[in-house]
Backbone:
């Protein structure tokens, strides 16, 4: 806003330059004889060429009356031949005698046929950037208490905006702006009318604005009350091609206290009504704090998206039975501190409901905090994701892309109920309740964590999840990462071809990585033919005297679909089942899997009509400090393979080196590989 004000003042400055020669004109009586001098002064001040194609008229008494016809200011370099500013007619009169007493009695300032062409090039540089000169530190404003202004009368003005970065073009045509007479302490009537056109989206509008400005310059208080706007919005997407729009509010600002208020805000457009109130402090800082109450009621979200040309989402929304949207909220926000308190959230969107409250602090920092409750439910989660993603960052946002990926998923209803309290500065996180039903999955969880900002956090909780389609959750999670080629999303897409995509998982856990104590009393997981069970108990694993004990079991049956989806079609045809069992024991640096056994059952034409078993057994020791892996009592048997012995690997985290003794009975390696179809 300050930049725009400075630009306007800059334009007025061009007129002031023309008035510099008033004394000179007084001596010569014909300012037209001195156009070259005026043009050179403007060139000197702005670096732009000025053309004065019409007459300049001047009278001195009882008014200093300046009239300029046909003023044109060239565009910035690189912005073409279209002028930056053109004015058909400008007239200003200042009474001479009061001027000698430093009082400014100005008659109505008249401007006709003004054209301002604003632009931004592909590099993001605007055609007014060179005019934005820093204000002098000792610059003093005119003493407004000594000003009497007969008013402002602007007729047939035009403003254009061309943005090569976005391709957007806007045009304000036939702008008329008038004010009542400015007498210190008296209210000022404002009236404005114009027509506006845009290409992105393709819209046009006729607008009329009126208001009454009141001010107290000594107390630095200003208000516009009422401020009324009425208009007609036109679009080929609207039924009948057009619709009325109205806006009403009362604005007030107290510059001494640096506060502003908006009362009685009402906006009606496109079958929607908005009302609200706002009180702001620290306005001049650029990072104000404000309290706001907002109430939004809309009947047709599809209509908004149609007018804004958001396709194909708008057309898809139009097919929904419930296209309404509502939002009631109370918010206290401090942008300087980065704090926000939404004490009431009550919303409805496309048949979905959202209720809750959220309090956040330090949201601009790397360590914000969040606390609140949320309860949401609705009939169509993918559509809601696409709408929220569009509002968040357009159709290419991760949320919108994820919603698009699962748009055809049959189980679209959702429900989420959660309570949370997270402080990333202290590292404390608590989610005492998370209950969710989404995309065919039911998830219930409790979680508490401390010191999550360190390398040694503690985490405790329980998770139970079951659902009909694990790959679709992988797909959504992968898309939400925002990566171009997410491995998780790719695997989710591949595994989506499976006939059986159900999953079931339960786990309790309590881990303190500082003390090295870990408890996982029970872990069960089942998905896509694979079953995992296990438990783990560890003490003092962060030290040398730590110890751990536990068990891990993995079984898999009917794995053809899973292996085929993972591009292992040959192995999927031969492998019928797999089983892995291991006992877990050891210290913090030396872990033993004892006993460890793995068994696979294969069937193929090369093997024969009966299933054949391949078995592996070994006692395994892993020492991470020494980077060693030992397999003792190794035995591998099946499909003609008979291996026994011991194996030791060193530098396992760098460049592994192997040593040991293996007894291998003669066998046909090529036939072995062919039997497994590898």
Residues:
């Amino acid at each position: 806003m300050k930049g725009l004000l400075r630009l306007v003042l800059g334009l007025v400055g061009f007129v002031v330059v023309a008035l510099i020669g008033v004394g000179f004109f007084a001596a010569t009586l014909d300012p037209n004889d001195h156009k070259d001098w005026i043009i050179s002064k403007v060139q000197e001040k702005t670096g732009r060429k000025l053309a004065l194609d019409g007459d300049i008229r001047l009278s001195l008494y009882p008014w200093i009356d300046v009239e300029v016809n046909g003023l044109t200011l060239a565009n910035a370099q690189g912005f073409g031949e279209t002028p930056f500013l053109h004015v058909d007619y400008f007239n200003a009169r200042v009474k001479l005698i009061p001027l000698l007493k430093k009082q400014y009695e100005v008659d109505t300032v008249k401007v006709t046929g003004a054209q301002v062409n604003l632009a931004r090039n592909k590099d993001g540089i605007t055609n007014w950037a060179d005019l934005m000169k820093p204000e002098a530190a000792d610059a003093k404003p005119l003493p407004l208490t000594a000003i009497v202004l007969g008013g402002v009368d602007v007729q047939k003005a035009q403003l254009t905006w061309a943005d090569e970065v976005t391709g957007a073009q806007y045009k304000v045509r036939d702008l008329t702006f008038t004010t009542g007479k400015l007498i210190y302490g008296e209210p000022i009537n404002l009236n404005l009318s114009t027509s506006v056109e845009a290409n992105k989206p393709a819209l046009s509008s006729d607008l009329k604005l009126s208001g009454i400005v009141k001010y107290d310059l000594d107390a630095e208080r200003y208000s516009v009350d009422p401020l009324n706007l009425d208009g007609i919005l036109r679009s080929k997407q609207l039924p009948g091609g057009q619709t009325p729009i109205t806006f009403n509010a009362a604005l007030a600002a107290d510059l001494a206290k640096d506060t502003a208020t908006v009362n009685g805000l009402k906006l009606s457009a496109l079958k929607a009504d908005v009302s609200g109130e706002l009180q702001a402090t620290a306005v001049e800082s650029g990072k104000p704090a404000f309290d706001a109450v907002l109430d939004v009621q809309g009947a047709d979200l599809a209509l908004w998206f149609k007018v804004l040309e958001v396709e194909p989402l708008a057309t898809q929304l139009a097919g929904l039975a419930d296209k309404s949207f509502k939002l009631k909220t109370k918010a206290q926000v401090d942008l300087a501190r980065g704090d926000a308190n939404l004490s009431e959230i009550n919303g409805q969107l496309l048949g979905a409901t959202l209720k809750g409250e959220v309090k956040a602090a330090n949201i601009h920092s790397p360590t914000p905090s969040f606390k609140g409750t949320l309860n949401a439910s609705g009939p169509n989660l993918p559509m809601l994701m696409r709408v929220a993603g569009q509002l968040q960052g357009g159709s290419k946002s991760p949320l919108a892309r994820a919603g698009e990926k699962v748009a055809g998923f049959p189980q679209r209803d959702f429900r989420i109920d959660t309570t949370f309290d997270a402080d990333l500065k202290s590292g404390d996180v608590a989610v005492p309740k998370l209950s969710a039903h989404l995309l065919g999955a039911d998830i219930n969880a409790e979680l508490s964590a401390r010191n999550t900002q360190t390398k040694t956090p503690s985490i405790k909780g329980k998770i139970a999840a079951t659902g009909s389609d694990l790959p679709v959750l992988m797909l959504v999670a992968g898309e939400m990462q925002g990566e171009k080629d997410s491995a998780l999303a790719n695997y989710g897409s591949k595994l989506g071809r499976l006939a059986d995509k159900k999953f079931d998982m339960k786990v309790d856990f309590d881990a303190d990585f500082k003390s090295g104590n870990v408890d996982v009393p029970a872990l069960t997981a089942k998905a896509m033919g694979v079953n995992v069970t296990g438990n783990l108990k560890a003490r003092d694993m962060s030290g040398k005297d730590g110890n751990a004990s536990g068990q891990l079991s993995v079984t898999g049956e009917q794995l053809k679909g899973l292996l085929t989806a993972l591009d292992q079609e040959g192995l999927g045809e031969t492998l019928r089942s797999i089983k892995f069992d291991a006992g877990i024991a050891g210290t913090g640096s030396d872990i033993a899997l004892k006993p460890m056994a793995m068994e696979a059952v294969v069937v193929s034409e090369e093997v024969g009509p009966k299933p054949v078993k391949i078995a592996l057994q070994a006692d395994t020791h892993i020492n991470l400090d020494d980077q060693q892996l030992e397999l003792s009592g190794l035995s591998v048997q099946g499909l003609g393979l008979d291996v026994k012995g011991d194996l030791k690997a060193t530098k396992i985290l760098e460049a592994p080196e192997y040593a040991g003794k293996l007894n291998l009975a003669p066998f046909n390696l090529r036939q072995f590989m062919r039997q497994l179809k590898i």
Remarks:
- Residues 12-27 have pLDDT under 50 and may be disordered.
